[in-house]
Specification:
Helix content: 10-25%
Largest sheet: 6 strands, antiparallel
Number of domains: 3
InterPro entries: 2Fe-2S_ferredoxin-like_sf, 2Fe-2S_ferredoxin-type, Beta-grasp_dom_sf, Cbr1-like_FAD-bd_dom, FAD-bd_FR_type, FNR_nucleotide-bd, MRET, OxRdtase_FAD/NAD-bd
Structural class: alpha/beta
Radius of gyration: 21 Å
Low-confidence stretches: 316-347
CATH architecture of the largest domain: 3-Layer(aba) Sandwich
Domain FAD-binding FR-type: 86-187
Number of helices: 5
CATH superfamily of the largest domain: Nucleotide-binding domain of ferredoxin-NADP reductase (FNR) module
Shape: globular
Strand content: 25-35%
GO molecular function: iron-sulfur cluster binding; oxidoreductase activity
Order of helices and strands: EEHEEEEEEEEEEHEHEEEHEH
Distance between the termini: 78 Å
Domain 2Fe-2S ferredoxin-type: 3-84
Strand order of the largest sheet: 9-8-11-6-7-10
Protein name: Ferredoxin
Number of strands: 17
Amino acid sequence: MSSTCSLVINGKAIRAARGDTLVEAALAGKIVIPHDCGTGQCDTCRVRIYAGEVDACGTRQGSTVLACQARVSGDAVIEFDAVPAVVKRKGTVTGLVALSPEIVEVTVALGKGLGHRPGQYVACSFAGFPARDYSPTLRSDGSGELNELIFHIRRIPDGIVSSELGRRIRVGHEVRVRGPFGSAFHRLGSGRLVLIGAGTGWAPIWSIARAARFREPDREMVVIAGARDPHNLHMGEALDWLSRSGVGQVVATASGGEPKPGQLAGRPTAHLPHLRESDVVHVAGSPALVAAIRLLAASVNATCYADPFVASARKRSLRHKLFDLLFARRPSADPEVPVPAAPRSAA
C-alpha cells in the first residue's frame, strides 16, 4: 500500500501522506483550509467529501467532516466554502446599549472594515482583557455600518470581560479584532431555512435571517428565538420585520417565567416544525440546545450548521475584585449602559 494518496481539494490535486489530518495535508500542498481552534470545537474547518473516503475520527455529519481531526486514509475529493481571509483590525467601542437586564449590545468602530459572512464570528480583545469570541450582528432595526461590528454580550457577574461592560470597558475603549471564523454562515440554497437562536445566539441567527430575506426572498423560512427569561426576548422589532417581510413562522419563546403578550412558553425545541431532509438548519445557543437540534436534524438527514455558545470558565480574580473595592468608581447606575427596569407584574 502506498504511503501517499491523491486528494483533490477545491479542484486542485495534491499528494497527501496517509494519517495526516486534512488541514495538514492541504497545508503541505499549499492550500489553506479555513480553521481556528485545531481541536474540533469551533466547526470552522468543516469540509464536504464528494468522493472517496477519509477517516472522519468521529466528526462526520452527513457528507461533511472536520478537517482538523479527519485523517487521510485513501484517495478523496473534498471541497470547502470560500470565506473572507482572516485579518487583524483595530477599533474602539462607540456604543453600549442594554437590550435586556442581562444582554448588552456593544458597537465597535473599526479603522478598516472586516469582511465576514452572516453567521461567522471573530475573536475580540478589549484592551487589558483576554480575547473572547463574538458573532457580529445587526441592530434590531437592521442597521449597521460597514466599518462597525455589533455584538450581543451576556453580562456574567464574575465574568472577566462581560462584568466590566460600562465600568472599565466604556465608550472609547480600544479593541483588537481577529477573524472571521466559523462555518455556520448563510449560504444560498433551495431547501427551507430553519433558524433557531437562544440567548446571545440570536446575534448570528438575526444576521443570517436578514441576509436571507434580501438575498433569496422567495426561500421558505422558519425563525425561532428563545430565552430562559422572557425579559431577555429583546428582539421583538427584528421578529416583527421578519413577519412583515413574509416569513411564515416566527416564534419568540421563553422556557422560564411568565411569557409576555406575543410570546410562547417552552424551549425552542417545543416549537420546532417537523424537519425534512431538504431543510437547512442553523442553531446557535447553549450546548444543550445545539445538541438537541443536531440530533433532530440528523434523524432526518437534514443539513445542520451549529454554533454552540459556551461562557468562558475563567472568572474574575481576587485581584480584580480587590481593585474594584479599593480604586474603581462604582456608580449606582452607569449612564452609558442603562439597565431597563423589569416590567411590573399585574397584581
